[in-house]
């Protein structure tokens, strides 16, 4: 029965009508996640040009204005204003900037450091592996929140401190996963064969092992973006996050929480932004993983 | 001493041929540590010479150390004792970097054509890597097409991924890669064991043609005597890490001396049911290579073994063409 249904879908999907083509296109490419990501990156880069208001300056006369479609709302503030009279839409747009910046910097360092260490540990094994992995265990054993609290108290609340903290704690997962994959891939015949045809160790790592690790790294990176936004929210919630009045999504959710009965939009819109971002990154990661596996390309 | 032979090499089976010795293994042992402080004795005290232009067939059961011997020749494993000499150069203690000049002269074809090709690289990249790393000086795309042609694959295969090929075709790609560096010596480690019977013959014939065409020397490893006999000039029979018998392919098959070789040969299926007389079936399994029997390693399954076999380790004895490691064979 199921077979028949699938067969029908297949036929519809391959019909040459316009809906058929659109359907095929949507199935083949991650249209929606890409769209969301493009919007996100676009708003992050051009935030000052797009945002209708200053995200940090509020007008206390215009507090808690509901979104435009509410009878009490106005088109001047499409997504309403928060309890300090700041435009929610503008703060969201600038928030994309902060969130993306944190994610990009932290993950660049995390991926670079973690993957390199993981490759080396996995490939050479023995003592090097032992030392590297104990170091990873050490990092994973440290309670992040506690360290973050102490560090911020000592060094003060700033974006640099937050990014630094996240970098220190972000690489271990990449190192661990990369090592595990490397252990598996290095036993493959083609890795030994590469040695037989005279490839140097860096070449083997880069050309033969790294491509097999990339998928996993991409997938954990996409999850990492969501995780980072949530971590930033957690820190903000505890009062050691991105310093106010910087508009970051996490802090917006955390701050708006207190007023959720009077002004739900202050919390809900950044929440939706976080959710959409995390979701589209996950979809995109899945798609890339399938895409990069040549054995699966034909199925797409 | 045959012409071209090196002084100092005293083997039992140096034939009075005009071909020089290319690969020389002297008293080689390769032992691996196994988890619990024990030692797996994969290859023990093995001596073997392979002459230029020769195909040496190596047979034995799984676990007899055939593959380890082949890998030791290419220095893909570390030697425990003994030496491996290639064309007069001692490879025994070379580091990975020092081995690189020899990589272009000796190549390998592995058993599993599925694992030996990187699934993420197209055929031209796979072959191109070998050409650029060791081939040197060739026009890349020309050489790649030439190689594909050599192994009987269409030039259109270049832009394909390994998963788009069948097992036999993949093995052809592996052969092409091995040939990409213009080697003199090839270790073919059970190159047909993973293939369908119908494809096996094709690959063996291809190897044979290439051997003649390119004047290759080959160590051909298999556990199938019929396959080995077809392609080899000489055959060596291994059991539990030791060489049991060496001799010309036809002579060994027609008139096996060692009781193990006899048993191995009687296990080869024969088409004529009437010819199946005196079939000798070995009892039990091969003992563990962690704790091999004293004396002759085969004595636990040997039909003619006695107390003497438990006490003395038999050496390979015989004349230059035939030698057998058995106390009971004279």
What labels would you give this structure?
heterodimer, A: 300 residues, mainly alpha, MetI-like fold, 2 domains, flat, disordered N terminus, B: 4-stranded antiparallel sheet, 30% helix
Describe what is shown at a glance:
With 300 residues, chain A is mainly alpha-helical.
Explain this structure to me?
- The complex is a heterodimer of chains A (300) and B (330).
- Chain A has 300 residues and is mainly α.
- Chain A folds into two domains: 2-27; 98-299, MetI-like fold (Orthogonal Bundle), CATH 1.10.3720.
- In chain A, 72% of the residues lie in helices and 0% in strands.
- Chain A has twelve helices and no strands.
- Chain A is flat and about 75 Å long.
- Chain B contains ten helices and twelve strands.
- In chain B, helix 3 packs across helix 4 (140-150) and helix 5 (167-180) packs parallel to helix 6 (197-214).
- Chain A binds chain B through residues 188-190, 192-199, 201, 207-208, 211-212, 292, 294-295, and chain B through 74, 76, 96, 100, 103-104, 107-108, 110, 112, 115-121, 129-130, 133-134, 161, 163, 174, 177, 180-181.
């Amino acid at each position: 029965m199921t077979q028949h249904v699938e067969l029908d879908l297949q036929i519809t999907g391959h019909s040459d009508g316009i809906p058929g083509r659109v359907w095929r296109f949507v199935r083949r490419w991650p249209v929606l996640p890409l769209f969301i990501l493009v919007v996100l990156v676009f708003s992050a880069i051009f935030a000052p040009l797009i945002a209708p208001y200053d995200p940090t300056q509020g007008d206390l006369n215009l507090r808690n204005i509901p979104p435009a479609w509410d009878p009490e709302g106005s088109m001047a503030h499409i997504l309403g204003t928060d309890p300090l009279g700041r435009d929610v839409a503008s703060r969201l747009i600038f928030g994309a900037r902060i969130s993306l910046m944190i994610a990009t910097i932290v993950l660049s360092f995390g991926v670079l450091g973690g993957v390199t260490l993981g490759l080396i540990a996995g490939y050479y094994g023995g003592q090097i592996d032992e030392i590297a992995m104990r170091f990873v265990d050490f990092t994973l054993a440290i309670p992040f929140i506690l360290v973050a609290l102490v560090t911020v108290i000592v060094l003060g609340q700033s974006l640099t401190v937050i990014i630094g903290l996240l970098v220190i704690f972000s690489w271990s997962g990449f190192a661990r996963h990369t090592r595990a994959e490397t252990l598996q891939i290095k036993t493959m015949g083609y890795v030994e064969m590469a040695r037989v045809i005279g490839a140097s160790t860096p070449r083997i790592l880069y050309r033969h092992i790294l491509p097999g690790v990339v998928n996993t790294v991409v997938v954990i990176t996409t999850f990492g973006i969501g995780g980072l936004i949530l971590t930033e929210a957690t820190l903000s919630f505890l009062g050691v996050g991105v310093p106010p009045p910087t508009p970051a999504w996490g802090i917006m959710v955390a701050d708006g929480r207190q007023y959720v009965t009077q002004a739900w939009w202050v919390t809900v819109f950044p929440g939706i932004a976080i959710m959409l971002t995390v979701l589209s990154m996950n979809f995109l990661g899945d798609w890339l993983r399938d895409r990069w596996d040549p054995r699966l390309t034909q199925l797409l | 001493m045959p012409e071209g032979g090196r002084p100092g090499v005293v083997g039992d089976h140096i034939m009075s041929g005009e071909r020089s010795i290319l690969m020389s293994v002297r008293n080689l042992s390769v032992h691996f540590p196994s988890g619990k402080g024990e030692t797996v004795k994969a290859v023990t005290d093995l001596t073997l010479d392979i002459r230029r232009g020769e195909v040496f067939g190596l047979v034995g059961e799984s676990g007899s150390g055939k593959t380890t011997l082949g890998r030791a020749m290419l220095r893909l494993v570390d030697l425990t004792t003994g030496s491996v000499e290639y064309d007069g150069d001692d490879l025994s203690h070379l580091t990975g970097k020092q081995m690189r000049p020899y990589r272009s002269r000796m190549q390998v074809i592995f058993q599993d054509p599925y694992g030996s090709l990187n699934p993420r690289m197209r055929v031209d990249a796979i072959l191109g890597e070998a050409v650029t790393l060791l081939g040197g000086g060739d026009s890349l795309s020309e050489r790649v097409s030439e190689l594909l042609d050599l192994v009987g694959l269409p030039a259109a295969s270049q832009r394909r991924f390994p998963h788009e090929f069948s097992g036999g075709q993949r093995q052809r790609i592996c052969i092409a890669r091995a040939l990409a560096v213009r080697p003199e010596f090839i270790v073919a480690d059970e190159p047909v064991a993973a293939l369908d019977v119908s494809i096996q013959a094709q690959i063996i014939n291809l190897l044979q043609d290439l051997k003649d065409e390119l004047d290759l020397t080959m160590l051909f490893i298999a556990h199938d005597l019929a396959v080995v006999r077809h392609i080899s000039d000489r055959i060596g029979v291994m059991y539990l890490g030791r060489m049991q018998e060496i001799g010309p392919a036809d002579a060994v098959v027609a008139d096996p001396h060692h009781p193990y070789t006899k048993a191995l040969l009687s296990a080869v299926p024969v088409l004529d049911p009437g010819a199946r007389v005196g079939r000798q079936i070995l009892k039990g399994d091969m003992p563990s290579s962690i704790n091999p029997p004293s004396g002759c390693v085969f004595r636990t399954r040997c039909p003619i073994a006695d107390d003497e076999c438990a006490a003395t380790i038999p050496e390979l004895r015989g004349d230059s063409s035939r030698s057998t490691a058995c106390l009971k064979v004279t």
